[in-house]
Amino acid sequence: MKTNILVSDTLYVIGIVFIIILVVLVFFLIYKLKKAKSQRREFEEKYNSLELKVNGLKLETLESKLNPHLFKNILNSIQSHAYQTYHALDKLANVLDYILYESQKKFVSPREEIEFALNLIEINKIKVSPLFELKVKTKIKEAELLYEQPILAPMISIDLIENAFKHADLKSPDAFISIVFEFRDSCFYLTVSNKISDHRSLKKDNSGLGSNTLDQRLRIIYNNNYKLDKFIEDDVYIAHLKIDLLEYKAQMLAAGR
């Protein structure tokens, strides 16, 4: 008799514990559901805010020429990759702020330009497979005085980076994009290389707006204080930009600017 009572009490306790666990689980699921809805609303609000910025993007001078459709495509890519959404939206917000505000300045610091370019690269990574080889390196001597001084034209790096993502052979097993930023001896360096899929489309693009705009800006702003080399080696397109900022600053001071 006592054994039956003991078994009955044990089953009762187990039942109570089970009900408590079930209730806790239900409340936990309700909490997670509410949190997911809150995050979704937050994402939608942030997405809509960024879309408004894109729609209002007007970049009409050589210093700020950019195609707003690029960011439309990026927003669509971000929306279709939920696991990268918040990270990518933050990067896109930084890029848009830089374009809308910093690009209106005649010059920015090399640090600001490099940070902008790195954010742009992070956004573009969404468009390629996780298995795609994307190598990004920075070799920066931050102690140099000109690194923090406004002496570099804003968005000077964007054309070379965008062209790499546009023309990289994404289907080839040995495809890659390599982007290297350097700042040493008061010089800004950017080297971009990628395996290409079609030489003819590359030549056509080099005669287009992006390439001409970059060449124009460099020639107008830096005169003889820069060097831009573009060439092809074994189906790999390489672009190397060097801007001698110390020499440029010396000439500006000598001219009283």
Tell me what the structure shows.
- The protein has a 5-stranded mixed β-sheet.
- By secondary structure, it is of the alpha+beta class.
- The longest helix has 54 residues, at 2-55.
- It contains 8 helices and 5 strands; from the N terminus they run H-H-H-H-E-H-E-E-H-H-E-E-H.
- Strand 4 (226-233) and strand 5 (236-244) form a beta hairpin.
Short synopsis of the structure:
With 257 residues, the chain is an alpha+beta fold.
Q: Which tags fit this structure?
A:
single chain; 257 residues; alpha+beta; 5-stranded mixed beta sheet; 8 helices; 5 strands
- Identify the quaternary structure here: single chain
Q: Mean pLDDT across all residues, rounded?
A: 77
Strand content: 15-25%
Shape: elongated
Number of strands: 5
Structure annotation, total helices: 8
Distance between the termini: 104 Å
Query: N-to-C SSE series?
Result: HHHHEHEEHHEEH
Query: Which spans of ≥5 residues are poorly predicted at pLDDT below 50?
Result: 58-65, 199-210
Which structural class do you get from the secondary structure elements?
A: alpha+beta
Spatially, the strands of the biggest sheet line up as 1-2-3-5-4
Layout: helices, strands, pairs:
Layout: H1 2-55, H2 68-79, H3 85-100, H4 110-124, E1 133-140, H5 158-167, E2 176-184, E3 187-195, H6 199-206, H7 209-222, E4 226-233, E5 236-244, H8 245-254
Parallel strand pairs: 1-2
Antiparallel strand pairs: 2-3, 3-5, 4-5
Helix pairs in contact: 1-2, 1-3, 2-3, 3-4
